[in-house]
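Reopening: structure tokens for the heme C complex, inputs below.
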Amino acid sequence: MKNKYINIFAKLSLTVVVATLFSCKEKNGLAPEYMPDMYRSPSIEPYVDYGEVRDKQHPEMKDVMTARVPVNGTIPRGFTPYAYENNAEGYEKAGISLKNPIAYSESIVKEGEALYGMFCVQCHGATGQGDGILVEREKFPPLPVKFNPGLAISEGKMFHSITYGKGLMGSHASQLNKEERWKIIQYIRTKFMNESQTPTVQDTTSQEIVATQK
Ligand code: HEC
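Re-run output (same inputs, fresh job):
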């Protein structure tokens, strides 16, 4: 009786061993995966090329990704492309055609002043004379431009230069959006270039500008 059980147990064990040995064979030489969905989530994931991991079963999914490179010429929602090229011709054209779309107001000048203090003062100086702290400490050569009443430069040219950069000044397009660039220009022209501005009847705030541009 006891022998009989031992015999059955031995036969069962042998079957398990043989089954285990033979079940390990995979055509592509990879080890079998227990619950493959644990490794490869069936949910769609960005930046995962499903064809790469599943091309055996789903060749049509080769190179299928949820997040794709946008087609050429795609622009972000709400973004208006800048129409002037980064060359002398674009500079001249911008100088003639571009006008500050933000009406003058004291609060805009204040916002421009704050932005100037964050992004420009280190080179252009607190009074726009090109004597910022970097120049003072001789980290940067003296600036060839001084923001004075006599400076003959249109606001369009200023915008163009801030957008693309000029000479040793780098582009500020990634740090400052268009409204911010125009606000700084309004500040420079009002405070350093003594340009007389007609105050708008109503003091416009940034929020109102954003609202009217929608
Ligand atoms: C790293 C130093 C540096 C910083 C920061 C800097 N500038 Fe300049 N900027 C210069 C130099 C140098 C020039 C002269 C470029 C030339 O004509 O070669 C210049 C020129 C200019 C001009 C004249 C452009 C023209 O067309 O002649 C304007 C306007 C101007 N900067 C505005 C700004 C504003 C606004 C900021 C802040 C958003 C700023 N700059 C930040 C260095 C700087």
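Residues 36-67 form one domain. Residues 210-214 have pLDDT under 50 and may be disordered. Marking as resolved unless the reporter disagrees.
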